[in-house]
Structure formats: structure tokens, C-alpha cells
Write a structure and sequence with these properties.
Immunoglobulin-like; five-stranded antiparallel beta sheet; 2 helices; transmembrane; membrane; transmembrane helix; C19orf38 Ig domain-containing protein; HIDE1
Length: 324
């Protein structure tokens, strides 16, 4: 009897071990390990992304997202993937909604609540009005926001002010309080539900000198913001163009003056030549062509023995009227 009991007990132990290894292994193969459902950044403020991540060494082709036990979204791939992303719109989702997922025929993941992404508010604009007044303008979508004024490079608040319920602009008076010619920035905050949302800081603005203040008596060079060292390309191009135009005007002017001087010199030379020839032609040139007898050494009666002119008057190249 004891021997039969021993065999019966051994059979029960072996059967239990067989069922635990074989049947359990088959169950694990038919129902793989559950995935993990996590929320990742979507890059947009109106939606979130839930990622269904299979365990290491596992993959699937069909991924399903459930709202409690109701199928919400399903993604099917041509090849096996280790994860799938599901994008949800937070404007239609409820804060108390819970989600789970699975891949192929795996077990369900643990439930996950949605966490709304932080709202990104548009950056405000800071401008200056007369007498050192700084105006900070926020988004028209959020009237009645709380505005804060900062000095650039400092995290301490200089002033805070809440806009009226229907306004999205406030005015700060910075002149005479924190020093002039300083750079300022502003920021606005709104209460969304139970959390505060803060905008980015505005672009820094330089508080200009107010007329009549002591700082206005400084040199004119101090009234301008410091140079950043950048080159103003349009200004350089305009200066070069003006210089080239001025050089061309000088060249044309020099050419005109040279041509005028050359023409005047030619006219003067021609006038001098005309005057010279007029003087030459106006002179009375007389050539003495008197004919004289030649003495032969014999003295004859009635014949002159000396040189005597044949004619009483020399021959002139220019005839003169009688009685002149």
C-alpha cells in the first residue's frame, strides 16, 4: 500500500511539473509579456503622444490603444516593430481618462493617465513712450494677464502689474527709478486651471534719454547705443556708389576743361598768325634797281666819264601817283 502511494504521489508531482513547464511555456508564447505605455513629447501644445513599447526582444505588427477596455486606436505595420506611437488631442480628452495598450495578442499594459503638455504663450512686445514709459503688450487671447518688468541680465522683479479684464497691455514707469539708458524686458503670466503659465521674456529695449533729465547733458556720443561692430552693407554700397559717381563727374569735368583750353589755344595761335601776316603785307618794300653806265676808260666828248644813272629816279616796286 505504501508502494502504491509512493507511485501515485510521484505521478502527481511529475504531472504538475509538466503542466507548469509545457503548458506555461505555450501560454507565454501565445500571450507575450505586456508592453509599456509611456507619454512622449509631441512638439505641439494641443496634443500628446502615447508610445506603446514592447519589451526587449519582443516585437509585433499590430498595436492597439485602449481607453479603459474600449479600443481607441489601432496601427498595423507590414513588418514587425518594437513600438508604435498614438497621437491624442488633449482638447477632447478628459483629465480622468486612463489608457492601456497591447501588441499582437500580448497581455495588456498598465494604465496610464494623460499629462497635458505645458502651454507655450506668445512672447510679449515691449515699447517705449514719452517720458520713459514702457508699454508691455501681451497676447490678445489672454486679457487680464499679470505683467512683470525685468532689467536685462537680472532675475529680480522691478515692477508687476495686472492688466484690466478686457485689456492685454500695461504701462510701466521706469524713468527716474532704476536709471536711464538701461535695457528692460517684460513677461506676462496667466492662470490656466490650477497652474500658472508664463510667457517668454520680450526682446530687450533700451530706455532712451528723457528730455530735461541730467543724463541728457552728456556728450552726444553717449546718447547712441554702443556699436555692435556689424557692417551696414547698404550704407557701404551707397557710399561706394556716391564715390564712383563723384569720380566720374570729376573725369568729365577735367575732359571738358582740357578740350576748352586746347580750342582756346588753337584760336589764339590762329589769331597771332593772322596779325603777323597783316603786318607783313602792310609794309612798303622798295628795291633800288638803278641802271648805271659803265666807264670804259676813254673820255669822249659828250660822254660822261663817271657813273651816272640812266634815269633820273630809281625804279620802285610800287608806283606812286604823280605829285605824291
Amino acid at each position: 500500500m505504501s508502494l502504491c502511494g509512493f507511485f501515485f504521489t510521484s505521478l502527481l508531482i511529475f504531472s504538475a511539473h509538466f503542466l507548469q513547464t509545457c503548458a506555461g511555456g505555450a501560454w507565454d508564447q501565445e500571450n507575450p509579456s505586456p508592453p509599456q505605455l509611456v507619454q512622449v513629447s509631441s512638439g505641439v501644445s494641443s496634443g500628446v503622444v502615447l508610445r506603446c513599447q514592447a519589451p526587449q526582444g519582443h516585437s509585433g505588427r499590430v498595436f492597439e490603444l485602449y481607453l479603459v477596455r474600449t479600443l481607441k486606436l489601432s496601427v498595423q505595420f507590414d513588418t514587425e516593430r518594437s513600438y508604435a506611437d498614438f497621437q491624442l488631442n488633449t482638447s477632447t480628452a478628459k483629465p480622468d481618462d486612463i489608457y492601456c495598450c497591447r501588441y499582437d495578442h500580448s497581455r495588456y499594459s498598465m494604465y496610464t493617465n494623460l499629462t497635458p503638455p505645458p502651454l507655450e504663450l506668445p512672447a510679449p512686445q515691449l515699447s517705449q513712450r514719452a517720458e520713459g514709459a514702457l508699454v508691455c503688450t501681451g497676447s490678445p487671447s489672454y486679457p487680464g494677464a499679470h505683467f512683470s518688468l525685468f532689467q536685462q541680465g537680472s532675475s529680480s522683479l522691478l515692477a508687476t502689474q495686472q492688466a484690466p479684464k478686457i485689456e492685454h497691455t500695461v504701462q510701466f514707469t521706469a524713468s527716474g527709478q532704476h536709471g536711464e539708458r538701461s535695457r528692460y524686458q517684460c513677461q506676462y503670466s496667466v492662470l490656466l486651471g490650477e497652474n500658472w503659465a508664463h510667457s517668454e521674456l520680450s526682446s530687450p529695449i533700451l530706455l532712451q534719454c528723457v528730455t530735461g533729465s541730467p543724463s541728457c547733458s552728456s556728450s552726444s556720443a553717449d546718447n547712441h547705443p554702443p556699436s555692435t561692430g556689424s557692417v551696414d552693407l547698404p550704407l557701404v554700397c551707397g557710399s561706394v556708389s556716391a564715390a564712383l559717381l563723384f569720380l566720374m563727374v570729376l573725369i568729365v569735368l577735367a575732359y571738358g576743361i582740357r578740350k576748352y583750353a586746347k580750342t582756346a589755344a588753337n584760336k589764339r595761335r590762329q589769331r597771332e598768325q593772322e596779325q603777323f601776316w597783316q603786318q607783313v603785307h602792310s609794309r612798303d618794300h622798295i628795291v633800288d634797281l638803278t641802271l648805271q653806265r659803265v666807264s670804259t676808260g676813254f673820255k669822249e666828248e659828250g660822254v660822261a666819264s663817271v657813273w651816272e644813272p640812266i634815269y633820273e629816279s630809281p625804279i620802285s616796286t610800287f608806283t606812286r601817283p604823280p605829285g605824291y
